[in-house]
Write a structure and sequence with these properties.
By secondary structure, the protein is mainly alpha-helical. Helix content is 65%, strand content 8%. The protein has a single domain, classed as 434 Repressor (Amino-terminal Domain). It has six helices and five strands, in the order βαααβααβββα. Strand 3 (70-71) and strand 4 form a beta hairpin. Helix 2 (25-32) packs across helix 3. 17% of the residues are buried.
Length: 126
Amino acid sequence: MGHFCVMKHAGEIVKAVVSDRGISVSELARRLGRTRTYVYGLFDKPSINTAVLEQLRQVLNYPFAELLGKKGPVQEYGGGYLSEAEFSTLQESLAAARKEAEHWKMKHHELSEQFNVYLLTGKKPG
């Protein structure tokens, strides 16, 4: 029996990033000035043209271009698919971003609490 590598296409990667960011399809559609049907269509595309990918990069704050790489004169990212190793790199990148965001969220809460104590007591925390 043959062994094969599972490939992830550009639309699946966009869908994973959208999911990771916790953005609904409706919200993404609103930010893009498009319909929900359009967004679902993007998720099904094996490759996405540069103009659309640039919009997605801005809306989602994710470096799709660096990850997928520009392909040929057609100027489509991904040429369709990522290898499992490349998709794994995407997942690691998303996990690192989540971890960093959680760190800063906790730091914000900690400083807010210290500031509240200061406001209530007039005593410098620490």
